[in-house]
Structure formats: structure tokens, C-alpha cells
Amino acid sequence: MDEALPLWSAFFFGESRIAQMSDETRLRAAILGASGYTGAETVRLLADHPRVEVRAATGHALAGKALSDIFPHLAGPSDLAVVRPDDVDWSQIDVVFGCLPHGTSQDVIETLPGHIKVIDLSADYRLSSPGIYESTYGRAHAAPARLQTRIYGLPEWPQNELEGSELVACPGCYPTASLLALLPLVGAVIDRDHIIIDAKSGVSGAGRGLKEGNLFSEAAEGTHAYGIGTHRHAPEIDQELNRVVGRDDIAVTFTPHLLPMVRGELVTCHVRGDADQIHAALTNQYHTAPFVTVLPLGSPSPDTRHVRGTNHCRIGVWPDRVPGRSIVIAVIDNLIKGSSGQAIQNLNRVMGWDETLGLGRLQPLFP
Amino acid sequence: MDEALPLWSAFFFGESRIAQMSDETRLRAAILGASGYTGAETVRLLADHPRVEVRAATGHALAGKALSDIFPHLAGPSDLAVVRPDDVDWSQIDVVFGCLPHGTSQDVIETLPGHIKVIDLSADYRLSSPGIYESTYGRAHAAPARLQTRIYGLPEWPQNELEGSELVACPGCYPTASLLALLPLVGAVIDRDHIIIDAKSGVSGAGRGLKEGNLFSEAAEGTHAYGIGTHRHAPEIDQELNRVVGRDDIAVTFTPHLLPMVRGELVTCHVRGDADQIHAALTNQYHTAPFVTVLPLGSPSPDTRHVRGTNHCRIGVWPDRVPGRSIVIAVIDNLIKGSSGQAIQNLNRVMGWDETLGLGRLQPLFP
Amino acid sequence: MDEALPLWSAFFFGESRIAQMSDETRLRAAILGASGYTGAETVRLLADHPRVEVRAATGHALAGKALSDIFPHLAGPSDLAVVRPDDVDWSQIDVVFGCLPHGTSQDVIETLPGHIKVIDLSADYRLSSPGIYESTYGRAHAAPARLQTRIYGLPEWPQNELEGSELVACPGCYPTASLLALLPLVGAVIDRDHIIIDAKSGVSGAGRGLKEGNLFSEAAEGTHAYGIGTHRHAPEIDQELNRVVGRDDIAVTFTPHLLPMVRGELVTCHVRGDADQIHAALTNQYHTAPFVTVLPLGSPSPDTRHVRGTNHCRIGVWPDRVPGRSIVIAVIDNLIKGSSGQAIQNLNRVMGWDETLGLGRLQPLFP
Amino acid sequence: MDEALPLWSAFFFGESRIAQMSDETRLRAAILGASGYTGAETVRLLADHPRVEVRAATGHALAGKALSDIFPHLAGPSDLAVVRPDDVDWSQIDVVFGCLPHGTSQDVIETLPGHIKVIDLSADYRLSSPGIYESTYGRAHAAPARLQTRIYGLPEWPQNELEGSELVACPGCYPTASLLALLPLVGAVIDRDHIIIDAKSGVSGAGRGLKEGNLFSEAAEGTHAYGIGTHRHAPEIDQELNRVVGRDDIAVTFTPHLLPMVRGELVTCHVRGDADQIHAALTNQYHTAPFVTVLPLGSPSPDTRHVRGTNHCRIGVWPDRVPGRSIVIAVIDNLIKGSSGQAIQNLNRVMGWDETLGLGRLQPLFP
Predict the structure, then answer these.
(1) Where are the domains of chain D?
(2) For D181-217, b where at least 16 C-beta lie within 10 A, e where not — what string?
(3) What is the DSSP string of A170-218?
(4) At residue D29, what are phi and psi to the nearest 5 degrees?
(5) Predicted pLDDT of residue D159
């Protein structure tokens, strides 16, 4: 059982099992931007991954600090120190998880040596069109050619390309939930011209940046929408919906809301189509997917609490009271399936490993 | 200044100003069902009403208790005891606020003496059709004839009928927010066949009933939808939208979600129509309404925190990224504008008083 | 009734009643530091004060903005713009509410013209000893002489000095609750050498400053202590306990905890003394105090929810299971009785007005 | 790696690895009272235990339902149905986890066949004195003789007796945190006559019982104390403190508070003693304990967020500002180390296994 015993247990048990594992069997990872939530979550999850070892965690403002001073929940005897990217010996790194803000992310990633595989969690490589990137994110992309070769990493959607890929762009949290719900439907089952996504997210989706609106006193006990008609995840959703059906005319209504909870994301998709057909299409698509559960027709709504702390997505379907309309609801943990967990799932696919490695044991923390 | 000094101040200041006010100048009210949230909130708000005095609070299971033992926040020297309806001297009561569950409400209200005006906060008199009442609430109505004569009390919608009415049915919380947003639009500004209401409510909207799903441990830190395609407020919204335009074919999609917050309700209306025209119609409708504010175009989303503790509704309008679609968002405090506050506003209108009496001083509690 | 109608109603009702009130009858106030929570709360509460009118709100970083752009819950047609202190015509101001951080507060206050009365909510004038101020706050006081003449404004404690005072230092939130519970006891009823205060506060007590620990994602769903053995409010509590009994040897243990709630503060005082005597002393002290309620022996614990949104303090007393020990618990709303409400109460006392003006109508927002 | 792959992964991955494990290598467990939080949490945690298999889950009101209908977060293809205790074939069960309310627990446990080991999470076997049990819990114990033979299962406190024990009484959540902090100190390091425990707990500690005070609307956004001077966990703490030092005169002050969070418990121990000596005693006691971390002197307060979802306890020590006093703070997840996790740790010790089995991989869910 030694091989399966995770790094994390070594943190807490004061034993060093790492030495027992030869480097050959474990991929050496660096986390770019370890001082944010997605960086910390990636470190946390990788501690239980049997074939990856985190060797470096980078940061600017907090360089020199122990990661456990920033995030005490990551404390342990084998703890990492945050270093500047320039201080990493990249020859000793096999894979990078990019957890930087968009813009910054491409600037660092484009300077990495060619042997390093990149799993990027930022928005920088999600959009395949340099023009749409620029209009959406307000700057020209530093490496527009890479947008053609990177793989958009939604691992549930049949993507044989993932294996061996050099650069994977992990979907945004909202696109993850929305696309898992809609991709199997957009080909034939629902009306492409009537897709309305009403989305709800916990506050951790806004990251660790310091804004008044994210303070407890202003984010608790209330709700509001934001980015109405303009959110950056909408073009990303359009892109993928169009791609799978070979079109360019699908445009969704996407309206996100901020909810007073830390983790969790729920998307309510108001569509036109038959609930039975929708349910059949989803079930058919995901019946072998380890991380997606399609609830039986007639179930209660999926609940973000039932996926909290896991890499799972749960999807439900209901006929509307208005004939011809249906409601499809998907829930995820925005920091795991919507971010760090999916990144690890993508790495597993890139490496040709079982895609559940390091993720299969996560259980929903309820209540 | 004596006249304006509210009853509530007497509670806390240890002085009895009540004796200084002759009964002639104050309406004598009874609260039916004072042990629930809407009952308690009605008592609380009426304590600051210059022309109403609460004389009786009824309950069954808790009869005999002081109201302040049930709700310590209502404590004061003039405190009320909860009594059974049979123990009230109805000849000394001018108006009743019905805060009972639906079903029970009609059973009590139909036995009251004819001189008593009724402001009913339950669902029992909202639907004008006995058939739709029965199919929606699962029982035949005890007084179907009253459904023709009662007034549906959404006071912002021009209703000259309110003055002098004997029985007012206060709208449900979701219909209140939804109708305030949509009633001015359904005539000409938006497409009646494409109305989707995605609604979000705090947990107090579920009342004080004991269910696992309303426990803190199960309602905190997550969200889910409920009543998808079947919620009882949908026929009520249909009814009023149809009524104002003299049709019977409007049917809305209505999908409510439970949010981890106590108070607050936000409805996101996905409609087809021009945002400028929608904004103009709403502004035109409400520019003199004391409790409805239409935000300027380009504003951030209305926030439930900015109406918490008040009788206000705030409405915003945005063009969608998909041409021809718009998003209209309304927020209220579900226990005040969505329930007890609106009930008092309705009484004010029934009596021909300034509709802000007892409500105008409420300020949003933020943060 | 016109006189009693508050400014706030004018905000929301679109009517300007301000013009009907001559300036002679209303004190003209300026808020220093209106962009923080105590500043905003002071503006909010004064809107319902019949004898004070807010004429200016100052700020630095946000100067030029409408106050309602910063705090939409303060919106209204008579809205204030934030201005720099230099841009205020101080000759038109009668009283200033100092809502600035400590350090900054004294720097501004000491430059104000002499005719202006000052109610300071910061920590700058609370400690009467310049030496203790310096050791506690890490800088020499700019006006040490003023520390001798300012009045420490805990209005419930017999302070005939408040009337006519030029400079009132409002107590900190923790000292407010702690001193209301302990001041009547320290003379004879409890053992002065065994006072342990275990305090709990909502996050709004930390103000609007941007720190990771105050983000929703890090302040929700958990608790921790802080300032253990070193919190700045401890010397302030010592000072007042010693002052009322003419000693200098009282030193309390004070351990605050941050709780995942916005408003509310509860102090649990572990003392040695007889619960009956303690209860009698508290009851005797506060039986005429409009804002302090001593609960009957045997009551459930006071609850912050029952004072939320009000200027009230509720105190309860229990005998411990260990003979000779008792527990005294006090709750307040930290932003009202612990800050802005008490400041207004102090102004009322300074002016010789009824101390409940502008505060008496506030009711607990429950649930 | 197959052996290490947990049962839980089989739930979610649609594969049945259970068949690959012979029954000989796995203990067969039944959960008594699976419809409460501790029952559900025990099921959840055991799904990742390599040497235990849950074979039965009992309940009364919910018998016949699938466990995943009650707790969807436990869903999976190998799902359990809830059965009445009478319907369990006890000959196929090796160990029982008692998750019933006190009173009920003893009534069921005393009827079990003698070959079954019992890990009881209720209060029924915690107190060794039948008299104190009766005065504390209001009924005579059904099996007073068992109170002499059961083992009080706080596994960190040297207890060679645990191995082979037939009946383990798991400590209450408050005693767990309090005793971990105080047991190493009470012998010599602190004054036994001055122990004050001010405790704070999340709402899940109150269980799944339906009471108004546990509703989200009444438990959110505020705090209060309860059981002041009378809480049932105080005699339990006294018992163990006295036991380890062979005395009978230690009596603690214990004052619990309910906090608006789901999970987490923090105890603040106000003691007399030297912080350095206290820290040394704790460090010495726990330096090899896998689940207890003593923070370095000078650390920030332990935070319940940093142990949420784990079986860990974190303890910190501070000198007070009053010479001779110190503050010791311990945090746990009340449902894991305070309940189900500790129960499993106890089973591991009973069986002579590594005490971290099934618990070592749990990581703190932050944020």
C-alpha cells in the first residue's frame, strides 16, 4: 500500500514517504501562482495524487514565504516555499499548472522551456480566436499561434486529442457546468436559437483579489447579478457549442449571479426541447463518465452541497410547465471540477493515465 | 410630536403613550397566526404605524404564551399574549391580517364577522378561479364566491378598487417582484410568448415550518432549485399578466432557487424586447411610486442587500448580448415588500391613507 | 407631524421636506470618513434624526463620488457627494462625527475650527493617558492635552459631564458591551482580580479595509480568535473599570473571536460573584436606561439577533456550576450601539436632548 | 494499487471492486441511526476505509428508504437501504457504530449479540458513574455495570486499554477539544481550580433534529450562548480531568455558544499557568500524535477552517496580558474529530490497526 499513500499524509504524519518513491515514477510539477485559491487548491489536490509531486510553487508578492504561512491548511513538514518564477530550475520540472490571472499567465507560460507540459487554468488560452480574445479580454494575445494548437480541456467531451497535448486550456468554471449540460444537446435535441443560461456562483469564484464586494460584510446575506450581457465566459460557451456542431451562429444569453456561499456553482439552462429526449441524450453521453452523474427524471434539483469538495458534476432535467420548454440544471464545485480538479483530470488524460487519479477519493462534504 | 411617536417606542422606553391616543384615531388590528415569520413581521412593522394598534395575536399551539417568549425581538412592556381565535372579542377588532398557512387561512377568515376588513397574506385568495385554486393547492376553496370580490393587492399597479375593499389578497413574494417587473411591459413592450423568470429567494421565504432542508446545516453554503415547472406562484403570475392585457394565453417559465441567506428575493426576467423601451415603460410606470425605484440604464445589478429591511423594490434593465433580448431584474425583501410590508401598504390604500404610513422610515440595513 | 418626518423619507419619496425645516431647528453635521461602515451607518441613522441634518460627507480616495455610488442603500434624491475635508465650509457645520481610522482622526479633528463639536468614533481620544495611547497605538498623540478634557462617551454610565461637552470619544465596540456589563459590578459585587472577557464579533467590526481574512471566502464557515492577550480594547476596558472605582490595579483578560456574521457582538464575562447580587446591581443601574435591558434571571442567553439593527444592549446573568462564579453576557449591534448609534446618543446628551432622538424607532431585524 | 482503492470510488465510478475483496479481510460494520449527521458522516468516512465495509444502516422512521434518498451526497451504485434494527442479520456484523440519540442508544446496544464490538458515539456510555449519568441525562442507565467496563475513547490520551475493547464510548465534541487541550496540563502545569472553558460550535453539532433555533433563518447571522452553567458536557470534562490526576475536586466552568457556521468547534481555555510550560507540555504530549498539531508559540489563532473536513485538532497557546494567566485554544471539526472520525480512530485502535486508516487522507476544505 505504500505506493498509494499520498504525499499529504506525509505532511501531517511527520513521516517522509516521498523518499521512498523514485522520481521516475512521479511527474514533477510546478504551480504558477500558488497564492490564489486555484493555486492552493491544486497543491492540496496533488498531495493525494499518486503520480505527481509538487516541486515548486511560484509567486511574486509572497515569494520567500512558506506556502503554509499563506495557507495554513496546507501545513506539513514537507512544506513548500513560494519562489519567484526566475528562481525555479525548470530543467527539473515536467509539468506546470498555470494558476495566474489571465494576461499574466501567457506572459509567464510563453517563456517556459519547451519540454514542459502546461495545464493552464487561466482564461488565456481558452478562446481559439485571437480577435475574440482581444475583444473579450482587452489586450492582444502574446502568442496567437498557440491558440490554434492548444487543446480546450473539457475531458468529458470526447477529445482524443488530449493525450500527449503540450498545452491544455482548462475551461472557465461557468463554461464547465454549462457545456457539460448543453454540449450533448446542441446538435439535435434542443433549439440552438433559444439557449438562456442563468448562472449562480459562490464567492470563491471571484478569487482572492481584494475588492469591497467580496468582503464578508458585503457578500453575505444577499445576492445580485453581475456582468449582465457582457460576461467573458459567454463567448467561450458560444465557441464550444458552435465547434461541436460545426456552426458559428449559436449565441447564448448568459447571466451570472453572486451567491453568499464559498464554493459551488449552479447553472440553470432554459432551453427548448423535449425533456425526455434531453435526458436520454445526457444519459447516453455520460453513462461511463466517472465524474458526471445525470439524475433520474423526477429527481429533486441537483444541489451544490452534494458535489462540494469533489470533482463531480450532477445534472438534472425537467419539463417546463410551458410545453416545448425544458430546464437543465448542472452543479459543480467551482474550485475543483470548475478549476483545479479538472486541471488534474486533464493532466491524467494528457499522460494517458486513469482520469480519476488523485480525484476519485474526494467525497462531498455534507453537511 | 406625540402623534407620530410609534407604539414601538413605548415598548422600549418604558413609557405608555398608548393611553394618550384615543381609540377613535387608531384602527384596532388582530394578527391571525402570529407565531410565523409573516405574523411576527406584521406585528413588528405595525408597532411603528401611527394609525393602527395591534390588539390581538392569535395562535393555536402557542396560545397562552407571551409573543415575546416566542419572538424575543418583539419584547416590550406592552407585550401581547397569543390567544386562540375563539378567545378574541371580534367586536373590538376593525381589521385582520391573515398570516396563516393557505387552507387554514380561508377556514378562519370565512368565520369572521362582516364588519372586519381582511388583509390576507396567505395564498388563499390570490387566484380568482376556484378551479385553478383547486388544481394548484389541492383542495376545493371554501368560499369560491369571495374569489370574485376580493381585490388582488399589488398596490403599485393602478388599482382604484383597493380603497374601501373588504378583502385584500396580498400577492406571493415571487409574484410581487415578478409582476412589478413585468406588468408594465406585457402590454406592448415585450413578447408575451417568451417570458422566463429565474427566481432566487432567501430561506425565510419558506416560513418557520420545521423541515430538514431549512435547517442551517442543510441550507447554508449551497444552492438548489425547487418546484421546477410546478411552483404554485406561476399560475398567479400568469393570472395577473393576462388580466392587465385582457388575454388568457400568457404562460411564464418560472424556476425558483433557494439561496443561503435569510431575507431577500431577486427575480431575473429573461424577455424579448428592447432594453430602452423596457426601461422607459418601467420608469414611466413607477416615477411616482414611493416604493419602487427603477435604476438608470447602465447601473450595476440591483442587490437584495439594498432593500433589506424595507418595503422597497428596485428594478434594473439590461440589453442582452443576443440582439432582441433583454434582462430585467427586480429585488425585494421577501418578508416586507413580499409580505408584511405590502400588506400594510394595502391597508393604507384600503383606508385611503398615505400609502407610506408605517413603512416610510424603514431603511436598508447594510452591511 | 411634519416636524417628525425624517430626512430619509424625503430621500425615498421624492419630496423635499428639508426646505420646510428652518436651519435654526436642525444641527448641521459633517461626517468625516463617510466611505467606511461607521460613516455610512451614521449617515443612515441621522437621516431619521429630527434635529440633525447631514450637510457634508468627507473622504479622500472617493472624493467627487456621490455617496450613493459607494453605498447604494443610501440612495435618494437629496443625496450627498463625498468631498475632501478642505472643501467643506466649516463655518456652516455645527457638529462633526469622526468616522476616520485612528491616527488619521486626530490629525483632521485637531485642525477643525473651535466652534465645532466633535463626536469621535475612532480610538484616538478614548485613552486618557498619552503614554498608554502611544504604547497601545504605536504613535505619540498629536494633542495629548485634549485627552484630559475629552469626555469618554458611554452614555448609560452616569455622566453629567456629557452635556455641553466639546469633544466626545465614543467607546470601542467591545468596551461598550463589556463596560455596560461590568461597570455596575466592579465596585462591590464582583472580584476585581478575576475578570475574564471572552468576546465574539461579526466581521463588520473589522471595517471596510481590504484584507484577505475579511473576504467572504475566508471569513465564512469558521471561527478563530485574534489579538489574544494584546487587543487594543483591553487597556480601554481597564481604564474605565479602574476609573469608576478610583483604582489602578484592575486588569482584565480579554480574548476576542471573529464570527461568520456581519453584525453583532457578544461578550461573555466570566466573573466571581453571586448571580443574584449581580443581577440586582445591573437591574438597579439600568431600570430607567432606554437602551439597556437586563433579562430576568433564568432567561435564555441574549442573542445578537434580538438587537440587530438597534441601539440596544441586552444583558443576562447566570450562576455558574462552580460555586462563587457567575457568567454575565451582553449583546449589541456593533455598528449601532457599538459605534454610530452610540455616537448619536452621545450627541443627544451633549445637546441636552432626549437621548433616544433618531434611535428610538429602530427595531431588531429578525429573522 | 487495487487494494488501496476505496469503496467510495466504486460508488461513483460504476465499477464494483468490492467483489474483489474477500470478506475475511474486511470488518463488517452496521451503523445504528444512519439518518442523522453522525450516522451519515460515519458512512461517508468508512467508504474510504480499507478494512471496514458497511453492511447495514438502521433507522426507524426512514426504514425502507435508500440512504441516498435521505443523503444524496452518499449516492452510488452500491447504495445501502435503511432497515429496522430487527431486520439486520447480526450474525453477519462484526462491529456497530452507535449513532443514535442518548437513551435510545443504550436500549439498542444492550440487545446486541455479544460477539459484536460497539463504538458508541452517543452520550450513553461516557459517564462512568450511573448516578451522574442519571442526574445529567434525566433517566436511570439501563446497564450501569457496563459503565465500569466500557472504555472512554479519546485515543490521543495514552490508553492501552483501547486495543481489544468490546465497548468504546466516544467523547462528546466539546470534551474532545477541551480534553485534548487540558489533559496534559491538569497534572502539574496549570491551576486545577481556575479552569474556564468558553466554547463555540457550529450548528451541525446540534444534529438533524427539527427545532426552530436550528432553522437557517434563526441560526444565521447571529450568536448566543446556551446551557450556561448546566451543559451536559461539563460533568464529562470534569470526570476525565479528575481521572488522569486521581482526584475528584476539579470542576470546570463551561459555557458553549452557537455560531452561524455548519462545522467547526473552537474551545478557548482560560487557565492559570505559564504559557511556555503549557506549550512544552502539549508539545511533549502530542509530538507523535498523527491528528494533533500544537502550533508554535507566537502563531495566529488556530482556525476551524484549517481542520474542516479532517480528523485533526490544532492547539495554540498564548500568555495573557495578566501575568500568570494563559489562553489555550483548540479547534476541531465537530462531525469528524468530534464524532465520526474519532469513532473510526477508536475502532482502528481497538483492532490494533494503524490509527490513521481511513482518516489520513482527509484534507482541510479551504476556502
Answers:
(1) 2-171+339-351, 174-336
(2) bbbbbbeebbebebbbbbbbbbbbbbbbeeeeebbbb
(3) PPPHHHHHHHHHHTTTTTTTB-TT--EEEEEE-GGGGTT---GGGBHHH
(4) -110, 150
(5) 76
Q: Is D103 left (phi over 0), alpha (psi -120 to 50) or beta?
A: left
Question: Which of A157-171, B149-163, C86-100 is the most confident on average?
Answer: C86-100
Contact D8, D76 (CB under 8 A): yes
> Alpha helix (H) ranges present in D1-89?
7-13, 37-46, 67-70
**Touching partners of A (3+ C-beta pairs < 8 Å):** B, C, D
Give the pairing of strands C151-152 and C82-83.
Answer: unpaired
Q: Looking at the complex, report in whole angstroms how far the Cα of residue A174 sits from the nearest Cα belonging to chain B.
A: 15
Secondary structure element (H or E) that encloses residue B281, with its range:
helix B275-286
Q: Which three cell numbers stand for residue C238?
A: 481597564
What's the pLDDT score for residue A189? 97
Verify whether the Cβ–Cβ distance D361 to A361 is below 8 Å.
yes
C-alpha cell at A361: 477519493
How would DSSP label each residue in C58-123?
E-STTTTSBHHHH-GGG--TTPPBEE-GGGS-GGG-SEEEE-SPTTHHHHHHTTS-TT-EEEE-SS
The per-residue pLDDT for C78 is 55
Domain boundaries D2-171+339-351, corresponding CATH code: 3.40.50.720
Residue D75 identity (one-letter amino acid) = A
DSSP C271: E
Q: What are phi and psi of C247, to 5 degrees?
A: -125, 180
Chain B residue with CA closest to C46: the answer is: B363
Q: Does C260 touch chain A (CB under 8 A)?
A: yes
Rg (CA), chain A: 20
B127, exposed or middle or buried, with CB in 10 Å at 0-12, 13-18, 19+?
A: buried
Domain C2-171+338-351 has CATH 3.40.50.720: yes
**Can you list the pairs that C314-318 forms with residues at least 24 positions away whose Cβ atoms lie under 8 Å?**
C315/C180, C315/C181, C315/C282, C315/C286, C317/C275, C317/C278, C317/C279, C317/C282, C318/C275, C318/D228, C318/D229
Hey, how many other C-beta atoms are within 10 angstroms of the C-beta on D68? 17
Strands A196-201 and A265-272: antiparallel
C-alpha–C-alpha distance, residues A317 and D215, integer Å: 29
- Location of C-alpha cell 440544471: A329
CATH architecture of A2-171+339-350: 3-Layer(aba) Sandwich (3.40)
Q: What pTM value is reported for the model?
A: 0.94
Residues in chain A within 8 Å Cβ distance of C260: 216, 220
Choosing among 3.40.50.720, 3.10.20.90, 3.90.1580.10, 3.40.50.920, the CATH entry for B2-171 is: 3.40.50.720
| A204 contacts: CB under 8 Å, gap ≥ 6 | A37, A262, A263, A334, A335, C217, D367
Closest-CA residue of chain C to B359: C9
Query: What is the reported pLDDT for B186?
Result: 97
Residue C280 identity: A
Per-residue confidence (pLDDT) for residue C344, from 0 to 100: 98
Interface of C with B in 320-339 (CB under 8 A): 335
Q: Is the pLDDT of residue B13 over 70?
A: no
- ipTM score for this prediction: 0.93
- Domain B174-336: CATH architecture, name and number where available: 2-Layer Sandwich (3.30)
Do you find a cis peptide bond into D367, omega within 30 degrees of 0? yes
All three cell numbers of A233: 465566459
Nearest to D285 by CA among D188, D174, D167, D357: D188
Residues of A in contact with B225 (CB under 8 A): 266, 268, 301, 327, 329
Nearest beta carbon to residue D228 from set C230, C252, C318: C318
Q: Residue D221 and residue B203: Cα distance in Å, rounded? A: 13
In the 3-class helix/strand/coil scheme, how is D288-315 assigned residue by residue?
CCCCEEECCCCCCCCEHHHCCCCCCEEE
